[in-house]
Amino acid sequence: MICRVDAQPFAYAFDPAHTALVIIDMQRDFVEPGGFGASLGNDVTPLQAIIPTVRRVLDTWRQIGALVIHTREAHLPDLSDCPPAKRQRGNPSLRIGDAGPMGRILIRGEPGHAIVPELAPIEGEWVIDKPGKGAFYATGLQERLEGAGITHLIFMGVTTEVCVQTSMREANDRGYECLLIEDGTDSYFPAFKAAAIEMIRAQGAIVGWTAMSEALLVALLGEAV
Ligand code: TIU
Q: By three-state DSSP, how is residue 218 classified?
């Protein structure tokens, strides 16, 4: 089955059997007060607004039985996978590994590391822990995707210009055809979200396509929702 999405800069075609829905870092650490995003000085609560949209797409994707991949940005408790440059960068209120209200900041297994309950992974879905902003660096994701015959990736999650865009660029360089769901992603900086979307689809989809969630759902279900 080939689905065609009304996307920019032109239609995005994919076969769900060879496509994964990739939900980037919808963790408490990025969307709830007291986590990593807040430690960097950001107002994190506006990002919660995309959760229902991400859930709607996720529900439909689950319904058709195609592959779902969740990523989480976090480090090992001993910080052996955290470059000192990443930990020392800037002047955050709490650094990676410090104790905060949701446990140690950006550390695997702490409360802040968890994906928000509305989007929690279910059995059979992949959960990729990544030490960097991109989903491919030091994760083995490419090998797993190749093993599963995946050629197309549809992205949602946070933040648009950091982990989502980095992951899309990594994927694009590896030959994947990538679509970003515009209302399924958000940034602490609205102007950066808008710029990232423009950059991705410019120059004839130099990094990938973008579309609204409604267009993807219409392509999947064959009707307006
Ligand atoms: N997941 C992700 O985007 N990590 C970040 O650090 N994003 C920021 O915007 N800081």
A: helix
Distance CA 91, CA 220 (A): 45
Question: Along the 225 residues of the chain, how does pLDDT read in single tens digits?
Answer: 899 999 999 999 999 999 999 999 999 999 999 999 999 999 999 999 999 999 999 999 999 999 999 999 999 999 999 999 999 999 999 999 999 999 999 999 999 999 999 999 999 999 999 999 999 999 999 999 999 999 999 999 999 999 999 999 999 999 999 999 999 999 999 999 999 999 999 999 999 999 999 999 999 998 645
Pocket around ligand 1: residues whose beta carbon is below 6 Å from it? Answer: 25, 30, 37, 40, 73, 133, 158-159, 162-163, 188
Counting atoms of ligand 1 from 1, which one is nearest the CA of 159?
3
What's the CA-to-centroid distance between 222 and ligand 1, angstroms?
Answer: 34
The best mutation among 159, 165, 168 to test binding of ligand 1, ranked by most ligand atoms within 8 Å of the C-beta, falls on: 159
Q: What is the pTM of this model?
A: 0.98
**C-beta atoms surrounding 103 within 10 Å:** 18
**164 CA distance to ligand 1 centroid (A)?**
8
Instruction: Name the residues annotated as catalytic.
Output: 25, 130, 163
Residue nearest to atom 10 of ligand 1 (CA): 37
Give distance in angstroms: CA of 145 to centre of ligand 1.
Answer: 23
Residue 220, Cβ neighbours under 10 Å: how many?
A: 20
How many angstroms separate the CA atoms of 19 and 23, rounded? 13
Contact (Cβ atoms closer than 8 angstroms) between residue 209 and residue 5: yes
